[in-house]
Amino acid sequence: MPHMTKNTVAQPPSIYEISAWILTAFALYFIVKLSLLPALLSGLLVYELVHILTPYIARSFPSKQPGNLSKLWAVGILVITIVSLLVLAGIGLGTFLRSDSGSVTVLLAKMAQIIEDSRRILPSWLLEHLPADAMTFKEQAALWLRVHADELQVVGKEAGRAMAHIILGMVIGGILALRDVVAMDDFKPFARALVGRTSLLSDAFRRIVFAQMRIAAINTTFTAIYLLAVLPLMGIHLPLVKTMIAITFIVGLIPVVGNLVSNTVIVIVSLSQSLSVAIGSLVYLIIIHKFEYFLNARIVGTQIRANAWELLIAMMVMEAAFGLVGIVAAPIYYAYIKAELRERNLV
Q: What three-state secondary structure class fits 6?
C-alpha cells in the first residue's frame, strides 16, 4: 500500500483490506488470550535483527539474482547466530536470577526484612501503607504471585511452556527473515493485504521495542552509576546491587510502569542503610526520570507519534482486559493501530 501524505485522499478500502483487518484483529486478540505473546515478540525480534544486519552482508553479495546461494547461506548463518545468542542470553539471565547472588526470591526476602527493621524510623503516615511485618509482606507477595501465576508464566510448569514458545517464535521469525532473501511470490490481492498488515505490525514492533530498549539501557546505565559508583564513593554499599541492575533493565522494557517497579525496589533496599539514603536514592531517581521523561517523549513519541498519556491509557485498558500480559502488549498494539490509521490518513 503506497504511503499517503496529508493532502492525499484515502481510497475506500477494498474487501480484501477489510478482511485482512478483521483477520489481523482476531489474530492479535487470540495471541494475547492464548498466551502466545512471548512467541510473537521473540519472532519479531529475530526477524527485525536479521533485517537490520542483512544490509551489511548484502554489500558482500551485490547480485540481485534469486539464485544467489552465497547470500542465502550468509543470512542463514546470521539467523542461527542471532537465535543462539538470544537463547544463551536468556539462559544466562535466568541462571543469574535463580542464583544465590542474583535471586529475586532473596531480594524479596531482603526487602521484607528491611521494611520490618525500618518501621521504627519511618513516619506514621507511611507505615499505614506498609505490611505489618516481614511475614505479612511475604504472605502478601506469595498471594499476589499465586493470583497472577498464569499471567506471569515464569513459575512452575509454565516456565518450560513459555520458553518453548519463545524458541519456536525465534525459529519462525528466522525462517520468515530467510525467506525474504529469495524472490518473493506475486501475491494475490488478499495475501497482499495481509502482508501489508504484517509489515505495519513489524514496523510498529521495531519502533516501540528498539526505542524502549535504548531508554531501558540509558536508565540502567544511570542507575548502575549510582549504585556502583556514587554510593560506594560515599561509603554506602547496598546489598544485591547486581540483581537490582538486572531488574532495572528487564522491567525498564515496559514503558512508564517498569520505572516505578525498579525505583520502588531500589528505595526500599536503600532503607537498609538509613532513611536519608532512601530519600537520597528517591531524589536521584526522580531527577533521572525527569530527564528520561523528555528523552522518552523524544524517542518513543518521535517513533510512533504518541504522547506518554496515550501509552498509559492503552496500557491501562489492556491491563484491565488481559492482565499483566496486556501491559506488555499495549505499546506495540497501540503503535500498530496508529500506523494503520496514519496509513489511511485518518490521524
A: coil
Gyration radius (Cα) of the chain, Å: 23
Place of cell 511470490: 185
- Residue at 7 is within a domain: no
| Angle at alpha carbon of residue 134, lines to 228 and 280, rounded to 5° | 35
> Does residue 8 belong to any structural domain of this protein?
no
Dihedral over Cα of 185, 191, 195, 196: its sign: positive
Please state at what angle helix 241-252 crosses helix 257-270, rounded to 10 degrees: 170
**Residue 2 burial class via C-beta count within 10 angstroms: exposed 0-12, middle 13-18, buried 19 and up:** exposed
Cell 499483566 belongs to 324
Q: Which residues contact 215 (CB under 8 A, 6 or more apart)?
A: 252, 255, 292, 295, 296, 299, 300
Query: Could you give the CA distance from residue 325 to residue 29 in angstroms, rounded to a whole number?
Result: 12
Domain span holding position 87: 15-343
Number of domains comprising the chain: 1
Does residue 36 lie within any of the structural domains? Answer: yes
Q: What is the DSSP letter of 52?
A: H
**Cβ proximity of 258 and 128 under 8 Å:** no
pTM score of the predicted model: 0.72
Instruction: Answer whether residue 9 is part of any domain.
Output: no
Cα 136 to Cα 64: distance, rounded to the nearest angstrom:
66
Residue pair 48/206 in contact (Cβ under 8 Å)? The answer is yes
At 166, list the grid cell. 519463545
CB 24 within 8 A of CB 197: yes
**pLDDT, tens only, 227-270:** 999 889 988 888 888 888 888 888 887 766 677 788 888 888 88
Residue in the block written with cell 506469595: 142
39-68 per-position pLDDT tens digit: 999 889 888 888 888 777 766 665 555 445
